[in-house]
Amino acid sequence: MTENGTYVYYPGCSLQSTGRAYDTSTKRVAQHLNLTLNEIEDWNCCGATEYFSVNALPAYSLVARNLALAAETGGAPEVVAPCSACYLNLRKTNDYMHKFKKLGAQVNQALAAGGLHYEGGSLRVRHLLDIIVQDVGYDAIGAQVTRPLQGLRVAPYYGCLIVRPDTGYNTEYPTHLDALMTTLGATVVDFPMKTHCCGGHMTQISEEVAYELIRRILKNAADYGADAIVTLCPMCQLNLDAYQGQVNRTFNTDFNIPVMFFTQLMGLAFGLSTDELGFGSEMVPAMPALSRIGRELPEERERPKRRDKQALPMPTPRGSGRSES
Amino acid sequence: MVHTSPKPGLYEQIMAETPGGEALVTCLQCGTCGGSCPSGADMDSTPRRLFAMLMADMDDAVLESNTPWYCVSCYYCTVRCPQAIPITDLMYTLKQSAIAAGKFHKDAHANFSDSFIGYVEQFGRSFEFGLATRFQLTHHPLRTVRKSGLGFDMVRRGRLHTAPDRIRNMPQLTAILNEAKRIAAQPVPAGGVT
To answer: Taking a contact as any Cβ pair under 8 Å apart, which residues of chain A between 92 and 111 contact chain B?
Structure first.
């Protein structure tokens, strides 16, 4: 842990858009735990999986610009990323620049064109969940729980990149998110698919591949009676949440499992309001699951009715039972 | 399997261009990679078979294979490989080689990556709305109609921005990327990138 609980924060593109609720809840929970997250000034995209598919050196250089800027940010030497793909790219570039000297030199040659330099390995790149369980710790988190998630059955979904390639946790059956959920008072269900792939960018490129991968995960969570899936990656959340309807249509299933970020559940257990935690932006409503722990979403604004009660009734279709004389 | 190619072919090139890629010479052909792959069933060759083809100098067949393009980058193969071969990274290098040789699989995957990068190079940030719209309209115009409801719901929930975010210092990022591309275009130095 950094001495005063201060970290360099790399939110990544998804947390500005599709994973906005993750950013909101992360900041709120960090504030509650007295963690300071200093956002990297003018950070750029990490390139996701796309840039590395086309041209490796520019891809490493793209990531390295963020590392160089991070090293100048207050809170260094620890960089925290909440998105698993950003975490992987930052960590990999950091490690490779250190381990593979020629690559490090070439990346620095590119950085120099922008007046920057980065010493590979000088920062430590960490995922948000790692900070929470290792630096803050289960005991300190447990002490903050005022509204335990009693009765909520959660399936802890890790996805790929927080445990692979090696990050120090079990690469196939990690348990730190399970332990965190137990600390919050939730019931953790068995979830053998916890580190299987959500399909990543395949929802755009090859629906057939993606929907099957998503279906397996949803089915597994449903089979074990989960009220909610809890995740730590904006891509996993997007795929399991936003494409759940498409998966149901494709496979003629009726999954209805809300997918939440672990930071949202932490906030709930700390007694924070659903409003402050970004609830309401999910596609599969979180409401039924939240009502199990006595929590409600802010009331949806009453929409003006299009027709008033005085208007004539709509014509009834033929053969709908009304007798015609 | 002993590789006896007289001149460096794709096999040597792939290893040289991948950090740690030289471990590929130790491949046992055990098939753990293919058995672990979540999209293995959709690949025309499993990773194991693709590596066997590489070692047999079937360069064109390797470059035309859909295998790297179906890789979802989950790293199961990498962590399970008994020889610690960086298989996922090798798949990335194979994609780059296929693009460079103009032989990439006819599926639209390379184009998706290209569009994504295009936005990053223009704005410094990814732009999901533009990416999804452009890609779907180009490749699946009929699906676009079906998916537009989802897009609309995402916009309504504030989860998709219809205009891109931009970083401030684009000139700096552009200079870095241009220099990186210039270096990358030079021949791979002897001994590879490591």
So the answer is: 96, 99-103, 106-107, 109-111
Residue from the list A50, A200, A242 with its beta carbon closest to the beta carbon of B72: A200
Q: Are residues A192 and A82 in the same domain?
A: no
In this complex, do B184 and A58 lie within 8 Å of one another by their Cβ atoms? yes
Average pLDDT of the residues in B60-64 = 95
> Which among A18, A109, A197 has CB closest to B72?
A197
Q: Which residues span the domain enclosing A252?
A: 138-291
The number of folded domains in chain A is 2
Is residue A244, in this structure, part of any structural domain at all? yes
In the predicted structure, residue A321 carries a pLDDT above the cut 80: no
What is the value of ipTM here, to two decimals?
0.89
Shared-domain flag, residues A143 and A272: yes
Q: Looking at A68, A97, A128, which one is the last position of a domain?
A: A128
pLDDT at site A322? 46
Q: Identity (one letter) of the amino acid at A231?
A: T
Cross-chain CB nearest to A114 (options B93, B96, B176): B176
Inter-chain CB proximity A115 and B172 less than 8 Å? yes
Is A149 found in the same domain as A121? no
CA nearest to A243 within chain B = B150
Average pLDDT, chain A: 91
Q: Looking at chain A from residue 195 to 234, which residues have their Cβ under 8 Å from any Cβ of chain B?
A: 196-197, 199-202, 204-209, 213
How close does chain B come to A241, measured CA to CA in Å? 11
Q: Are B107 and A205 in contact (CB under 8 A)?
A: yes
- The answer to whether the Cβ–Cβ distance between A53 and B88 falls below 8 Å is no
Does one domain contain both A34 and A170?
no
Sheet holding A228-231, edge to edge: A187-188, A153-156, A228-231, A259-261
When scoring A16, A24, A42, A45 by the number of chain B Cβ atoms within 10 A, the one with the most, hence best to mutate, is: A45
Ordered DSSP codes for B43-71: SSS-HHHHHHHHHTT-HHHHHH-SHHHH-
**C-alpha–C-alpha distance, residues A178 and B182, integer Å:** 47
For chain B, the average pLDDT equals 88
Q: Predicted confidence band at A313 (pLDDT cuts at 50, 70, 90)? A: low
pLDDT at B116: 87
Largest CA distance in chain A: 91
Domain ranges of chain B: 10-105, 109-183
Alpha helices in A152-261 (DSSP H): 176-183, 202-205, 207-223, 234-242, 244-251
In this structure, are A64 and A184 located in the same domain? no
Which residues are CB-neighbours of B118 under 8 A, at least 6 positions away?
none
**Looking at the domain B10-105, which fold is it?**
Fumarate Reductase Iron-sulfur Protein; Chain B, domain 2 (1.10.1060)
Q: In this predicted structure, what is the pLDDT of residue B134? A: 75
Take residue B2 and report the two structure tokens written for it: 């002993």
| Domain containing residue A105: CATH number | 1.20.1050.140
Same domain, A243 and A152: yes
Distance CA B88, CA B18 (A): 10
